[in-house]
Write a structure and sequence with these properties.
This protein is of the alpha+beta class. It contains nine helices and five strands. A five-stranded antiparallel β-sheet has the order 2-1-5-4-3, sandwiched between helices. The relative contact order is 0.13.
């Protein structure tokens, strides 16, 4: 703002539009009545307001201590989250624990020392950096805690400003979760399980087609699918379904040397 009260020129258009983004998010959160609806709005908003975000997911921790991913923007996010659940380490686990930090991040996953199992595994799957923000509803049932997970393909891509934006998103989401008429944890887990099984089946079909057509291993087939998904900016499950249903018409690039 200039001294005479006239808005200064040359301001960052990105920040000028954030007010509208968060206003839209607030309005949409007021209209949803389930945990699933809130979480879907949250990941959609994260992709819009955080330019470096490649994929976004939500980790939830049930009262019995189990972690799962009910909402994601791409199937690869579920795989990345699952690596953390299996190894017992990673930003999303730290942030999702009720006594965990407000946020946890890695700017260089390939050389991460704090999470030595997860970091290199995430880098092998095409991710360079990650940010996880605590997502904490109040203490009422279903007493969930969780994290908003933002993955970026580039190393060092997620800035302090991105972290602040993610914190704002998580705050909006936490408030909405605390006031909505929430579905139960079991409902979310069943819905996620159905979705995961469907995605796994179609990816398996696509892998089988590539293995038979090219005489390659399952890992090589999955690498082709994953790389093509990234190159085309198409969700892995969508690409797999297209290949499975139109395999006589389509072919994918060969494995990378």
């Amino acid at each position: 703002m200039s001294e005479n009260g006239v808005p200064a020129t040359g301001s960052d258009d990105r920040f000028g539009g954030l007010g509208g983004e968060f206003l839209d998010l607030t309005r949409s959160l007021l209209e949803v009545t389930t945990v699933g609806g809130v979480l879907q709005q949250l990941v959609t908003a994260a992709v819009r307001v955080i330019p470096a975000a490649s994929v976004v997911s939500i980790t939830l921790r049930s009262p019995d201590g189990l972690f799962y991913t009910p909402i994601e923007t791409d199937a690869i996010a579920v795989e990345l989250d699952q690596v953390q659940y299996r190894t017992g380490e990673g930003p999303c686990l730290d942030a999702a624990r009720p006594d965990g930090p407000a946020h946890a991040e890695s700017q260089d996953l390939a050389h991460e020392t704090e999470w030595p199992k997860f970091g290199p595994a995430a880098a092998e799957r095409g991710m360079g950096s990650m940010l996880a923000i605590a997502l904490l509803p109040d203490a009422r049932e279903p007493q969930l805690s969780g994290a908003l997970n933002v993955y970026a393909r580039e190393t060092g891509a997620l800035t302090p400003t991105d972290r602040d934006l993610a914190l704002l998103l998580a705050t909006h989401g936490s408030l909405a979760l605390a006031t909505t008429n929430a579905v139960t944890t079991a409902d979310l887990q069943r819905a996620h399980l159905r979705k995961a099984i469907d995605a796994r089946d179609v990816i398996g079909q696509a892998k089988g087609i590539l293995m038979q057509r090219r005489g390659i291993s399952a890992d090589e087939a999955f690498d082709i699918l994953r790389r093509t998904s990234q190159d085309l900016n198409v969700k892995l499950a969508v690409l797999a379904e297209t290949l499975a249903t139109r395999h006589t018409e389509l072919d994918l690039p060969g494995p990378r040397a």
